[in-house]
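Key idea: predict the complex, not the pieces.
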Amino acid sequence: MLQIHCPYCGLRDETEFTFGGQAHIVRPTNPSVVSDREWVEYLYIRDNPKGLHLERWQHRFGCRQWFNVVRDTATHQIHASYSMGEPRPSLEQFCPADTQPLVPSKKVDEVSHEQA
Amino acid sequence: MNRLNQCARLPQGGLIDRNQTITFQFDGKCYQGYKGDTLASALLANGVHLVGRSMKLHRPRGVLSAGAEECNALMHIGEGGRSEPNVRATLQPLCEGIKAVSQNNWPALGFDIHAILDWTAGLWPAGFYNKTFIWPSWRWYEGVVRAVAGLGRLPDEDDPDHYTQQTYHCDVLVCGGGRAGMQVAMDTAQSGKKVLLVEQDGELGGSALWDGSDITPLRQAVKQSHNIKVLCNATAVAYFDHHWVTVSERLTPSCTNDARSEALSVRERLWKIKANHIALATGAIEQPIVFPNNDRPGIMLASAVRQYLNRYAVLVGRKIALVTNNDSIYDLAYELRKAGAVVLCIIDSRTAGSSLAAEKAVQQGFTVYYRALPRNTRGRLRINSLSVESLDGQLIEARVPCDALAMSGAWQPAVHLFSQARGSLRYDESTAAFVPDRIPDNMSVTGDALGFDYGQLTEEHPVFRYIPKHQLGRQWVDFQHDVTLKDIDIAVQEEFVSIEHLKRYTTAGMSVDQGKTSNINALTALAERLQKPIPEIGTTTFRPFYMPVTLGSLNGGRKGERYALARTSPLHNQLEKAGAEFWDYGHWRRPAAFPRAGESVENAMQREALAVRQSVGIYDGSPLGKIEVRGPDAAEFLNRFYINNILTLKVGKARYGIMLNEKGIVIDDGIVCCLEPGFYLVHTTSGNADTIYAWMEEWQQCEWPNLDVVICAVTTQWANCTLQGPNARRVLEKLGTTLDLDNVRFPHMSIQSGFVNGDIPVRVMRASFTGELGYEVNIPANYGDALWQNLLEVGAEWDITPYGVESLMILRTEKGYLHVGADTDGTTVPDDIGWGGPIKNKKADFIGRRSLALQDNTKSDRFHFVGIECPSLTRSESVLSGSHIIGIGEQAPAASQGYLTSAFYSPNINQWIGLGLVRGGRERIGETVGLFHNGSVQPAKIVEPPFFDKEGGRLHV
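Result:
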């Protein structure tokens, strides 16, 4: 079982949380003008790294706040938690010496709703 | 009674309590043992070696080991609900009155008809299943094979015992309470850390309990330390991420029914332990040696012979032969001699001169055969002789008459938890074992778990595990599943050369012990056959659990009502009084209907559905999802969720709304009310209240934190008594409220707040899911009970009828009202349910809108929501929702054109009606189709709902 650091409540067991998938997916500002392809990418296309992954969790059975987590998908090590709206952290600082960081292919933070 | 009277028990010695005699039964015969015995040691004390039959070939089998690695002495213990199959007799503490039965034999253990499988073993090699039982179909053989195959039989009654679970946090978890484990625990505890020490046995000490060493001071120190908590009879069975370890603790042995108080018996406790550091002191497991007919009763691991001798004072034989490839067996030789047994010979596979221990034994007068192994053994139900040959194949001794044979292959460290924690292993040539290599963070390994010290081995004298390519007889690698070297040959021949494939193909290592005594021999044999070094073969994956864990303890207290707690309405007591038949709807336990004495639920549904339309009905709507949304941006916030326009909703008004997910799929519907400017009450379907609340939270926090809005789930704050029917207003008037109930000033789809009984607040929404005049009266939950009671009293004048969920389903089906989740599925978009047009009037974006323009969502042959009627069927026939729609005149197999989502017999129009999703259904109104269910086809017609009050006039009276 994972232990996850909730930015508001501290370290808690995984059973208190729900998983919300990849973080920093940006919803198109005006969906009616984007192409089918762009929309489908927003809906379905996700990174699947072996290594560091930014993802969002909700402390559902606690403070009910959503926040983001840096997790290593290969080891389940959780490197950091940060509040919704905080910018994505640079992955280099968490990278184990013997592995390459897998940087998500998407460009993000251009029109981030979280920071609006 | 005492048939054999502990004939193999030594007059003194051992850690048993000879003052406490325990009587027990095995296969219906009575025996005696002492407190401190295991079932296995007590049987051996009585000279019983034959304890079971192997799973596949029904070979006679005896006790092999003295611990968790046992794969032969598996028994059925106890009776009735407390019985348990496949109990390892080596782990089962002996207790008074215990009844054990051997498994897998008929009519008797000594004479088993199915042993014919052994005489015809050539017919059943590895993979025979896959090759033999495929023509014409596996089904033809299944019955017979299932009757013969498998091990043990399930208890036929419910388990009456209790199981619990506990979470525990500590600084250091020490797995294994032997010398090494106790030492680590002491060292750690002295630094002030909180230590949990887990030991599988009932007593701390590990191998020190039987190898002659004195650990009393250490054990005392551990027991007295305030920082060490000790769990005995507890096995660390699994490692999970972030240093969580599951420990299975056996509290009360499964024994007799009368031995314990029914109420207090907690049989097992499953610990979920979170440790900052894990110290593994799990020891090592001795491996068997592979030679022809090495599976007879009386052939045991040397460490087990030694444990039975020193711990239980049981001499497993009088004339014993020893076979080894290492030094660890030599101490046993001296101890056996001292105990009065004859050590016939020591067969050592190593070269003369390679072992000081062997040379010393020769000096002490033991017969040692170097570079030798057993050629064969004899004895049907117990070994009675063996022959010895050199590794070159020369016969050394034709007949050694023995009654027991102790063997010692390599010692494999118990690295199960270590490997589950992703520690890496390295093959150690000098000890012929896989030992820990890279140790995971915050973990340490100590003692024999790091590798057993053999003493005298050098590189020039490698350990021999078995005689390669022996032709004299079958050589068992896995005892329980009857896997021999020949099976491994077949697997190699058929290219199952990965160790994981070998395991699946031959079933080696898949038995109850999960290969604790077979994996190493199997992979060594594979390596030899492939002429590859052992490290290249590797091991199979070590998966949880280390040893079998009962389903009871995994389940803990979650059974019966506690499996999933039912939510009940604040009106529950009143509903019960009204005679409700409760069914489960999602998490809620709700009235399906209120059958009167002698009335069936089906008849009650019909009566209630009629009564609502004729006069007035009362319904518990409390579980209906209620979410309050407040703030300057509340309207904008809700407008982004609904396909309907919320911005134009005026104070006091209610509007039906449909919610989509981002893929455009309908996920919920309900009524949105505007209570005040910037204050909305959102109703969701009952089953979706939690989901929709969480859905709103996610969008609010993650996507639209800039919107100034607060959302609050209030479902359980309010009780809801819903009045429906032409007389609903009269009942509410008679109840007395501060509300203006005038039909014009309080029209359909509006809401008012006011008071009843002077100062009790109510929110009354005029809305309907039945098609009748209706009021949903919401009152703070603790007044619900009284409100229901008062409404029944004042409604008596109009013969008010409580109605349940099923009756409501008839009424809403008559009206063609959609029930999200029943009439929609995971593909339904608004246009499928007739909302394609109205959406166009809304300008703003909403969740899922863009997806509606995707190609697949605009096809013309999608599943449309339509009505289905069956005018030709009588009430006594049944039409079932879920029936597939096929072309009229078609017989199955035919392509499904959709399916019936709701179906009821309508008492108001006296025919079977239903709703369904039909491919291209809107263009097929009037078409006759077939309803296929379970082989039969009923005629039906596609129609346009509703079936009743098409103009909807009854809503506005």
